[in-house]
Automatic annotation (TrEMBL):
Pfam families: FliM, FliMN_C. It comes from the Bacteria. Keywords: Bacterial flagellum, Cell membrane, Cell projection, Chemotaxis, Cilium, Flagellar rotation, Flagellum, Membrane. The keyword Secreted does not apply. The lineage of its organism: Bacteria, Bacillati, Bacillota, Bacilli, Bacillales. Belongs to the FliM family. This is Flagellar motor switch protein FliM. It is found in: Bacterial flagellum basal body; Cell membrane. Gene3D superfamilies: CheC-like, SpoA-like. PANTHER family: FLAGELLAR MOTOR SWITCH PROTEIN FLIM, YOP PROTEINS TRANSLOCATION PROTEIN Q. Its main location: other.
Length: 324
């Protein structure tokens, strides 16, 4: 507490001010800088945690850019424009009254997250999927049932990659739940609860708009201790599998049809129509052609191996592009 001045000290101070010996600014007590804190808008996440959230979603944008480019067969660019923490009420108030809202269930958190897609971006996606040029200017209505199914399929696959973006931090499962056009019908968090908002600037062909992710505190809270830089780097180190081993692991799980063709026969249509039970069709004999997919890659001879039909490979057929 500041000292209380006596009457004599007050008189001396006033006299010095009147005589010009002292300036008023010299006696104004310097006030401490006070940081305003709004308890209705609690800041639950540190800058370090928000940086980790940003890194996760940078990975997601790269994956989704590649995916949408392949699906739409046009130029697609997705970049993070903003990562911030706001109240859920502020998020709802910031988006248009008519928009495209995809709701996803997140396990094991038992919470829900929302991706808001600007109608211009959504219609550009649909136009490209239906064979158009991606021009959404003629669209001003809601999605039809067919268009809703298309949006569901596209973003269900996109959020399979969202799980991959989080795998260094937490194994989550994201399931598409519903699509809505009015934000007032979506209630994934209390009005004053803090949510993380990630704004993605999206360009599809000549159309530019935004997609906005909203992560409620219920989803982020269980993984907050893992969002520190130390935990992030530790998780990255443990999952740093050499790229070649990673590709080999993926290739080992690929299923490819293998067909051994015994031979071929050519019949006139009249003979084919008159075939009866017991008829024999002669085939051209020779080496068996072993096909991988639709391509003949081996020649061999028929035989038995442990009581089962088998083919002994005699020759490998190389095609253009093979490494000899």
């Amino acid at each position: 507490m500041a000292d209380v001045l006596s009457q004599q000290e007050i008189d001396a101070l006033l006299s010095a001010l009147n005589n010009g010996e002292l300036q008023a600014a010299d006696v104004v007590e310097k006030q401490e800088k006070v940081k305003v804190y709004d308890f209705k808008r609690a800041m639950r996440y540190s800058k370090e945690q928000l940086r980790s959230i940003t890194r996760i979603h940078e990975n997601f944008t790269r994956l989704m850019t590649s995916y949408l480019s392949a699906q739409l067969r046009t130029f697609v660019q997705i970049d993070i424009d903003l990562v911030d923490q706001v109240t859920y009420h502020e998020f709802i108030a910031s988006i248009p009254s008519r928009t495209i809202l995809n709701v996803f269930e997140v396990k094991p958190m038992d919470g829900k997250m929302v991706m808001e897609i600007n109608p211009q971006v959504a219609y550009a996606v649909i136009e490209r999927l239906l064979g158009g040029q991606g021009d959404p200017s003629a669209r001003n209505g809601t999605l039809t049932e067919i268009e809703t199914v298309l949006m569901q399929k596209v973003f269900t696959r996109a959020f399979d990659m969202y799980q991959d973006a989080w795998k260094n931090i937490e194994n989550i499962k994201v399931k598409w739940e519903a699509i809505e056009s009015n934000p007032q019908f979506i209630q994934i968090a209390p009005q004053n609860d803090t949510v993380i908002v990630i704004v993605l600037r999206t360009t599809i062909g000549e159309v530019t708009g935004t997609m906005t992710l909203c992560l409620p505190h219920l989803i982020v809270e269980p993984v907050m201790p893992k969002l520190s830089t130390h935990q992030w780097l530790s998780a990255m180190t443990k999952s740093n599998i050499p790229q070649q081993d990673h590709l080999k692991h993926n290739l080992d799980t690929v299923h490819i049809p293998v067909i051994a063709e015994l031979g071929r026969a050519t019949l006139p249509v009249s003979d084919l129509l008159n075939l009866q039970i017991g008829d024999v069709i002669g085939i051209e004999t020779g080496k068996l052609e072993v096909k991988i997919g639709q391509l003949t890659r081996f020649l061999g001879n028929p035989g038995l191996q442990k009581g089962r039909y088998a083919v002994q490979i005699d020759q490998v057929i190389h095609t253009e592009g093979d490494e000899l």
